[in-house]
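Lab meeting minutes (informal)
Scribe: AK
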Amino acid sequence: MARERIFQRHRHPIKTFSLGLQHVLAMYAGAVVVPLIVSNALGFTQEQLTYLIAIDLLACGVATLLQVWGNRYFGVGLPVMLGCAFQAVSPMILIGLNSGVSAIYGAVIASGIFVVLFSGLFGKLIRLFPPVVTGSVVTIIGLTLIPVAFRDLGGGQGSEDFGSGTNLLLGFGVLVFIILMTRFTKGFIRSIAVLVGLLAGTVAAGFMGEVNFAPIREASWFHVVKPFYFGTPTFEIVPILTMILVAIVSVAESTGVFMALGKILDKDLSSKDLARGYRAEGLAIVLGGIFNSFPYTTYSQNVGLVQMTRVKTRDVIVVAGGLLVVIGFVPKIAALAQLVPGSVLGGAMVALFGMVVSSGIRIIGSQVDLNRHENLFIIACSVGMGLGVTVVPELFAGAPDWAQIMLGNGIIAGSFTAIFMNLLFNGLGTKATAAKMAEKQADVILGETEKLA
């Protein structure tokens, strides 16, 4: 498809709006779950959580518009949605607990600047992250987040009713509901199974008297965006290196999404197109740091909607981004996410984070030569290190504070293990090999989206 076709206006405004709303709904659960997890872990107040959810949705919209814009400096110019990077959740929590919230946002800003400055060189940097590394890292991310989901499912660690029959009924009920929806529905409804599960679980919890409506009553109808809401950012070397690692993994995954969309649109992406896409993602991360939200990355589930609806014009995504921006200015809407009880959220997160695990396994199974003992050994040691550190975090309690952020986090420890072992056993690899792997990743994403369609 010619570039002009990508940017043409859709002739039916109502249909364009409805399609844009579909894209928002498809990514909404992922967008609101991340701030809920981080805020609970860091002890944010109800007011702070409302602001965090609102500014996160607004930043998702701005990040999406930056990417869709597609000018000569930044933006891949494809119909792609951006949302919170799940791989940033655990590192952000650990940085916040060890160095304070200000260090989180200093690290996020620095990592975004890194992506912007080195966007043209990411073809070489990504050679450090072949599928055996990214697959292992994504698997570790999912596995280390599963305990967070189960703690919420039980009612929240330390809560008086932890593991009560009500919490277990709601949590596992939501999980079963999502499973059944995934089994017996298709198309768009299937793509929002987690969101529908959250809504159904909250309604059920309401009948059981488990829903707190105070956040809705106390939230305002409009608020002004405040840069550095949680304070002036601080810049510490270890948190910065941690978030740079997270950003590189996000960019590696985004490459496959860009190329998959390019195939759907019959558009050959050049290295300059990809660099503009990386640059827009970096700008989105910087904005996330300035407005105290999150790092942002492309969402592959929205590629499935493009494939399913066969509507490939940019204006649909512009509407979706605009809707997110509008919602972000209305705390009342953002506060709706706080109605979801912890047990309901936990049940949905089991499915959501389980899908992260399966994505990692998919990358390994479809793109890694598992007949090579070296690759099996890389996966075994990196996943083992990631899980081991997660289960026994006190192992490095005697290490210096700066080292504990690196060694005491399963995702970081497992990631560095995978990178080091891959260099040891497989070397750096060639640029041609990296391009071939990205092409294969795009084919895998397309295969998944065809099932949705």
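Next up, CB showed the second protein from the same session:
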Amino acid sequence: MRYIFLVIWSVILVSVLNYVVSAINQGTPDWNQGFIMSLVFAVLLIIIDAVIPSESPKAIGREDH
């Protein structure tokens, strides 16, 4: 479920960014390229989430005596 929301939010945020940047440059937004970039962004976030350990650094290698 969190991956679905990740993709939805990345599409929304990248689309808004695409619109704002194209408005500043006085051009037309390319929605297909923005959608592809949002999917790439979502995949990168999923990879980063998989690489980062879920335990805190203090808990890793800790031995309770």
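CB comment: The chain is about 70% helix and 0% strand.
No objections, moving on.
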